[in-house]
Design a protein that fits this description.
The structure holds 2 protein chains of 2 kinds.
Chain A (H helix, E strand, L loop, with lengths): L1 H5 L3 H7 L2 H5 L1 H26 L3 H4 L14 H9 L2 H32 E2 L3 H12 L4 H13 L6 H9 L2 H12 L3 H9 L4 H12 L1 H17 L2 H6 L8 H12 L3 H21 L1 H11 L4
Chain B lengths: L1 H5 L3 H8 L4 E2 L1 H29 L2 E2 L7 E2 L3 H7 L2 H33 L4 H13 L2 H11 L6 H8 L14 H26 L3 H9 L4 H28 L4 H7 L13 H11 L3 H29 L4
Antiparallel strand pairs in B: 2-3
Helix pairs in contact in B: 3-14, 5-9, 5-11, 6-9, 7-12, 9-11, 9-12, 11-14, 13-14
Classes of the chains: A mainly alpha, B mainly alpha.
């Protein structure tokens, strides 16, 4: 279904659209374009502001374009924020979380989809039940565990809870369920055990789902604010989100600097999105991506 | 892929129920072990901890003492809590107003033959931009002294406001950002729903002379209703958990509007992790769970009246 979204379907469309609808298409484009402008306007304003001086950015009425374009905002931002350290933290936490998430979810998803063992139904039910509980309910206990293991202010602390998600297991289970049984049986007849079958036959076939899950996990990891805020009390090992939120206290109303920071911090994920649109859309379509 | 998630083909479903599975308890347990350990240690146990603490008075350091339902009775008499509940409810209601917008836009995107990919990417940009960054940009736009919004309004002759510094407007201002941020997600989910509507229904109705608007209300909307329901449920669940926007857009040293604009999760964060009153924080979290469950249950009850399953 998701693949269909991404492909345009000229044949059906031509069949569906009467002459009248073809004729009216430009009206729809106008409506959509207006909506798109509204959606993108904040970003445009952000970009324009970055190249203004602080004085110019805070004058009323505002100037449409920078009178005297300057890249000072970037200089101020990079000069006063340990950006590269925060970027390293964000990236490390993301990589760790994605790898952990994929490994844990793929293994469990395969077992739930394809192996028979006592208690399978009950355990799966337990996992699914956890899907319905809002994440805030876990924070106090997770914080205590991380603290008691002496892991506050470490990168694993940022990544570990996010590796285990009932949603990931559910998604992988569905992916394995949809792979025809014949492949597995053939492997079994060749004498391959469950682990070999899993690794060489099943895992490669579940690749699209894994990609969607990886992308979705990256998005969660990159954007997360509340959990990093809680487990980095000392202040080093803070990811970009926390750093950026702190920037505001530091620079108050120096909007060009704040806008520059916001841009730089968002850019990595935006670039990944532009490259991997398909995976983003299919991930979102399969989850709802909320909370 | 979504089709797989929504409804695995019957063939495979039968298989999973039947005896076709590999009887392999050893491998089965081994493969779910990491997930099981992680989920029990980091989810089931913390959940029980939160539940237990909600009945305790927990000092910042040292063990807590059992105090029965004291935290809950205190909550019921706490005006800040009720304010937070009202704020979250208002924010959720505002976000629901974004659902019809998403339906119309999704339907329009389906109608065009060119440029769909471009629209999808543009509408999706806010989803992949750091919420913290987005909040900073909007905070600037909402600035009462030199924000873009007030300037645009002044051109239209509308008086400007301190959108994020005046508690009269904060939740509405934040709600608009919430709609803007989630539109891209809703469009994707609704787009998937639209794609699954059989084309021949439209052909048949055009032959009967039905116009586009009529088709939208007679065919699109009823057949899309399961997706609309999903979007509505997800919107409510996530809106009730909103935290980042308030944290970044309203929190500053001298913003007095924050006190009246806290959401449930913001209040939870403050109690449990700033004031370290974990018992009280835990009680707030449990109430949040109950509110979300109640809201979801009500929606599942109501769906019989408006969701159309073929």
């Amino acid at each position: 279904m998701t693949d269909q979204i991404l492909r345009s379907r000229p044949i059906e469309r031509a069949a569906a659209g009467s002459k009248a609808s073809r004729h009216g298409e430009w009206v729809i484009h106008v409506v959509l374009a207006v909506a798109a402008v509204v959606m993108v306007a904040p970003f445009v304003w952000q970009l324009i502001t970055i190249f203004k001086s602080n004085r110019e950015a805070s004058q009323m009425p505002p100037t449409l374009l920078p009178e005297d374009p300057t890249t000072g905002a970037f200089a101020t931002f990079f000069g006063s924020v340990p950006f590269w350290a925060q970027l390293t933290v964000s990236v490390s936490a993301l990589v760790l979380r994605v790898i952990g998430q994929l490994a844990v979810s793929a293994l469990a998803g395969y077992a739930f989809a394809r192996l028979r063992f006592p208690g399978r139904r009950l355990l799966f039910g337990l996992f699914i039940a956890m899907l319905m509980v809002p994440s805030q309910l876990f924070l106090i206990g997770q914080f205590e565990i991380i603290r008691d293991f002496g892991m506050l202010d470490t990168i694993p602390a940022l990544a570990i809870p996010g590796m285990f998600s009932a949603f990931g297991i559910f998604l992988m289970r569905q992916a394995f369920l949809s792979i025809p049984a014949g492949f597995e049986e053939a492997a079994r007849l060749d004498g391959a055990g469950p682990l070999r079958t899993f690794w060489y036959i099943m895992l490669p076939m579940a690749r699209p789902t894994m990609a969607a899950l990886a992308v979705l996990t990256s998005l969660y990891s990159w954007n997360d604010l509340l959990w990093p805020l809680i487990v980095t009390p000392r202040g080093d090992k803070r990811p970009i989100t926390v750093g950026l939120a702190g920037l505001q206290g530091q620079f108050g109303t120096d909007y060009p600097t704040l806008m520059a920071g916001a841009l730089v911090a968002s850019l990595p994920l935006i670039v990944i999105f532009l490259v991997l649109q398909r995976q983003f859309f299919s991930g979102v379509a399969s989850s709802g991506l909320k909370g | 892929m979504t089709t797989d998630v929504a409804s695995p083909p019957t063939r495979q479903r039968n298989r999973s129920r039947g005896g076709g599975l590999l009887p392999s308890p050893g491998w089965g347990y081994l493969m779910i072990a990491p997930a099981l350990i992680g989920l029990v240690a980091l989810y089931v146990w913390p959940f029980l901890t939160t539940f237990g603490k909600s009945f305790m008075d927990v000092p910042a350091f040292g063990p807590g003492t059992f105090t029965g339902v004291d935290n809950y009775t205190e909550l019921l008499g706490d005006e800040t809590f009720w304010q937070a509940l009202r704020n979250s409810a208002l924010y959720t209601a505002i976000l629901l107003l974004g659902v019809p917008v998403a339906i119309v836009l999704a339907a329009l995107i389906e109608q065009v033959s060119r440029g769909r990919a471009v629209y999808r990417v543009l509408f999706f940009l806010p989803v992949v931009t750091l919420p913290v960054a987005v909040s900073m940009v909007w905070r600037f736009i909402y600035n009462g002294d030199f924000g873009l919004l007030n300037y645009v309004l002044s051109l239209l002759g509308v008086p400007g406001q301190y959108w994020v510094a005046d508690a009269t407007f904060t939740i509405y201002a934040v709600g608009v950002v919430g709609i803007w941020m989630s539109l891209g997600i809703n469009l994707i989910i609704l787009g998937a729903g639209l794609q699954s509507i059989p084309r021949d229904l439209y052909e048949a109705s055009s032959l009967d002379g039905a116009g586009r608007v009529r088709q939208f209300f007679r065919i699109t909307l009823p057949l899309l209703s399961p997706s609309v329901f999903l979007v509505t449920v997800l919107t409510v669940i996530s809106a009730l958990q909103m935290f980042d926007l308030i944290f970044v857009m309203l929190r500053s040293v001298n913003n007095t509007a924050l006190a009246d604009s806290k959401t449930i999760v913001y209040l939870f964060y403050e109690k449990a992790f700033v004031e370290f009153d974990q018992g009280y924080g835990a009680a707030i979290a449990i109430v949040l769970l109950m509110v979300i469950m109640a809201a979801t249950l009500v929606q599942f009850r109501l769906q019989r009246r408006w969701v159309f399953y073929d």
